[in-house]
Amino acid sequence: MNFADMQLDERLVRAVNEMGYETPTAIQEKAIPILKKGHDMIAQSETGSGKTAAFGLPILEKIEQGKGIQALIVTPTRELAEQIAKEFTKFAAHLSITHVLTYGGVSINPQIDNLKRAEIVIGTPGRILDHLNRRTMNLSGVRFLVLDEADRMLDMGFIDDVEKIINTTPKTRQTMLFSATMPYEIVKLSKRYLRNPQTIATKTHVERDFLEQVYYDVMRPEKYSLLVHLLHKEKPSLAMVFCATREQSDLVAKNLKKDGIEAKAIHGGLTQHRRNTIMEGFHGGKIHVLVCTDVAARGLDVKNVSHIFNYDLPKTSDDYTHRIGRTARAGEKGKAIALLSPEDHQSMRRILQDQNLSVDKAVAGTYPRLQFRRSFQQEEGEYTQEYVRRQQRFEKRRSSERGPPQRGGHSTRSRKPRSGRR
Length: 422
Description:
The chain is of the alpha/beta class. It folds into two domains: 3-201, P-loop containing nucleotide triphosphate hydrolases (Rossmann fold); 211-362, P-loop containing nucleotide triphosphate hydrolases (Rossmann fold). The protein has helices spanning 10-18, 26-36, 51-62, 78-91, 109-115, 125-134, 150-155, 159-166, 184-193, 223-234, 246-258, 272-283, 294-297, 317-324, 345-355, 385-402; strands at 41-44, 71-74, 99-102, 120-123, 144-147, 174-178, 198-201, 211-217, 239-242, 263-266, 289-292, 307-310, 334-340, 360-362. The protein has a seven-stranded parallel β-sheet with strand order 3-4-2-5-6-1-7, with helices on both faces. Strands 10-11-9-12-13-8-14 form a seven-stranded parallel β-sheet, sandwiched between helices. The longest helix has 18 residues, at 385-402. The radius of gyration is 25 Å and the shape is globular.
């Protein structure tokens, strides 16, 4: 099947062909016919799968020029909004359709002017709500609503804002929800706001011929030292290091920086300004190692990744393939490395069995043991207020579990009374 077979507007097919695409991806082949029929849809798919065209082409086909805002696309981050807008510009090359970007961190006034002429709005929850509160955005004519990277919006604390936005749109709209994972809160959201949705899912494709997979046995206290050793040994052009939590991502990235490796953490607890600075550093070649969680990484369309490091194993086998599927793309070779402590082996066997994968064991040899610091001073404006409060609650809970500090740092053991006279 090619795009011409999907009964899309000839102008859209011509634009897609000019972009170099003739055959739809798996998500496009499944989603476009459903959306052309007007159904609501839930799609489990990640960044890089072609999902922008999957919802963008059916929407553009039905937009009527000059009739106000008819489509709203809500994304968790500025970077993703910009990626979608670039694609829409190419898709609509032969149409007279206008879209506008709305996100924070920039002046709101040009956005206000552009909204008066736009048929499509692409933006982040905070700035969209800002426009709604100012009455500079009218969503009463919205026919198409896209919630992109819904699990990331949940992770970043945006779901309440998203619900407020949804409630300003007509109930007759067509709603499309895209999410790489389906946590309980996202399932609840879909049941509340989608009408008899069609559900589709696509799996990450792993290029086995171009991907080398190895694992190293390591005791947990030595895992960080081994990571540093391997980064020096492998010399990756660009590496992604996956951790289980935001806090762990921060600590690993800051320890790497301490030990002379240009690394930054990306997760939902960072402010928009901080995220922008990190991504500019990455695209400018100043950062070679991105340390991230599964949810945060899904919003990044990162190309030319040479190495994936599984510092912590993921919870599911699908998450594992999402990780390693970020390297060995477009005929380029890649390498996925897992650092396994004794308690990880059972989970790793299950993952490999589920995905029909095999991994070779590697031996690290000798390497220096490095200190792993567990606290760093925060930079001004580095984290969102919600993330700072979460960290404070975590530290308070950890302190209470340790118990009250002992006076003078001495042992609490009772001393034997001295014998004899003074």
